[in-house]
Amino acid sequence: MLKGKTAVVTGSTGGIGLGIAQALAAQGAEVMLNGFGDRKEIESLRQGIERLSGAKAAYHEADMSKPAEVAALVLDAERIFGKVDILVNNAGIQFVAPIEDFPADKWDLVLAINLTSSFHSIRAVLPGMRGRNWGRIINIASAHGLVASANKAAYVAAKHGLIGLTKTVALETAATGITCNAICPGWVLTPLVQKQIDALAQHDRMSVEAAKAKLLAEKQPSRDFATPEQIGGIAVFLCSDAAAQIRGSSLSVDGGWTAQ
Questions:
Q1: How far apart are CA 39 and CA 59, in angstroms?
Q2: Domain, as residue range, for 171
Q3: Is 259 inside any structural domain?
Q4: How many domains does the chain have?
């Protein structure tokens, strides 16, 4: 379905981002991976995507907190693939603390990676998308882009802002072949969430499995995690012709979290 299309997926060396990159590649898209991690492991992931999908995959180590590196990521993708048709803004970090104890530098970093980087990447890809009159911009927000939780001031603020950015870009491109939407996952079992589970298990002196159950019970009525593969499937759908008139939407994938 996506043969001849190219995609940049930020934060795609693991978790949700990797699931999305693999799903897009499986549909024929060429994919630019981005993120941190062991270079040998990343190269293995890149080769694996090419082997399983037959689509070309590349990697760029841009630090998404740095605007110049975000711009370099897009330029490099355009150099390698000739264009960027699909942009998935997935890079994200978390820091948890009461607001009076929240370090200012952590606030700045969470906002930079979870929100501001999306502004810079969208700004970089839009001219090319407008020139071709086709593009798909998918921002990975969160249930925390729709509702709040205590002790996550920066993350909640950034994800709410990302949904606002999504709506604005959708309006500015409404009369074109470019769409912009957000996917809002609840609990997805990723390395980021696993850290929260491990911290909860240690704090409450319980097993990791018990901590998983407690985490889900607090927020997610389905009592089950979403998977990176499911998020990837939704990203593929948003790139399809069937989704051409889905614009500025926030698609919840949260097991009923925000239905409460």
A1: 10
A2: 6-186+227-253
A3: no
A4: 2
Checking DSSP bridges between strand 30-34 and strand 135-140, what pairing results, if any? unpaired
Give per-residue pLDDT as tens, 91-147. Answer: 999 999 999 999 999 999 999 999 999 999 999 999 999 999 999 999 999 999 999
Together in a domain, 131 and 159: yes
Same domain? 195 vs 157 = no
65 and 105 co-located in one domain: yes
* Residues forming beta bridges with residue 6, ordered by sequence position: 30
Contact predicate 73/67, CB 8 Å: no
List, for residues 188-223, the tens digit of each pLDDT value.
988 778 888 999 999 999 999 999 999 899 899 999
Q: Please report, for residues 26, 56, 65, 102, 169, the alpha-carbon distance to residue 23 in angstroms, rounded to integers and kept in the order given.
A: 5, 13, 26, 36, 24
What does the DSSP 8-state code read for residue 175?
T
User: Phi and psi at residue 4, in whole multiples of 5°?
Assistant: 90, -10
Q: Which residues form the catalytic set?
A: 155
Same domain, yes or no: 146 and 203: no
Cβ atoms of 103 and 97 closer than 8 Å: yes
**3 state SS of 27:** coil
Cβ neighbours for 97, distance < 8 A, ≥ 6 positions apart: 103, 106, 151
Task: Sort 117 into a burial class: Cβ within 10 Å, 0-12 / 13-18 / 19+.
Answer: buried
CATH code of the domain covering residue 142: 3.40.50.720
The pTM (predicted TM-score) of the whole model is 0.95
Over the stretch 19-61, which tens digit does the pLDDT of each residue have? 999 999 999 999 999 999 999 999 999 999 999 889 899 999 9
Q: Which residues pair with 253 in a beta bridge?
A: 185
- How far out from the chain centre does Cα 42 lie? 18
